[in-house]
Write a structure and sequence with these properties.
The protein has one domain: Immunoglobulin-like (Sandwich). The longest helix has 4 residues. The two termini are about 20 Å apart. It has about 170 residues and is mostly beta strands. The strands form 4 sheets. Strands 4, 5, 6, 10, 12 and 13 form a 6-stranded antiparallel sheet that branches. A 5-stranded mixed sheet has the order 3-15-14-8-9, with no helix packed on it. Strands 1-2 form a two-stranded antiparallel sheet. The chain has 2 helices and 15 strands.
Length: about 170
């Protein structure tokens, strides 16, 4: 069970490390939630649109595309900027960095944004907010060895934090 409370400034507070997707995690002044994570198949029609605007080399044999869909809310009383700095780490210490996605081509890609108080990312009624799983896509290229090195941990690096906030990913 996760404790949730109000801080002195009136912001609803959440932990900075959670064991399950779907739980809220604070990273700096912004609260994040992993809406879902999964392997992406570039040959599946439903996944092709998520991979638009990716100019990186496709995964080699023994690798795969892996998507993490995020949602964020600014629960403070002033503007706050979401981060664009994430990593995935496996239990062996292997670190995976996001693959850039051209946001002019891909409406599902996560982008750092300044949110007004109570503002959310992705904002309704954008494509990223309305298509399942309902979040902005952060794309990774993972080695297939991650299945032996579970659980995976998403690290969220917010400006001004000395340590990342973390979410254990379902895989």
């Amino acid at each position: 069970m996760t404790a949730v409370g109000f801080s002195a400034c009136g912001k609803l507070s959440h932990p900075t490390n959670v064991d399950n997707e779907g739980e809220y995690v604070d990273a700096g002044p912004v609260t994040y939630q992993v809406q879902g994570s999964r392997q992406l198949n570039p040959y599946a029609p439903d996944d092709r649109e998520f991979l638009m605007g990716v100019s990186a080399t496709p995964p080699a044999i023994g690798q795969e595309w892996f998507g993490v869909w995020l949602w964020a809310v600014n629960q403070t009383g002033k503007d706050a900027t979401t981060t664009d700095t994430f990593d995935i780490v496996d239990t062996q210490g292997n670190v995976y960095h996001p693959i850039p996605i051209n946001t002019r081509v891909n409406p599902f890609a996560w982008t750092s944004q300044t949110l007004a108080p109570k503002g959310v990312e992705p904002a309704p009624p954008t494509a990223a907010s309305q298509v399942s799983p309902g979040g902005g896509l952060v794309l990774f290229r993972l080695n297939d060895t991650v299945y032996s090195n579970r659980p995976l941990t998403l690290q969220i690096f917010a400006a001004g934090q000395t340590k990342p906030s973390t979410v254990s990913l379902d895989l």
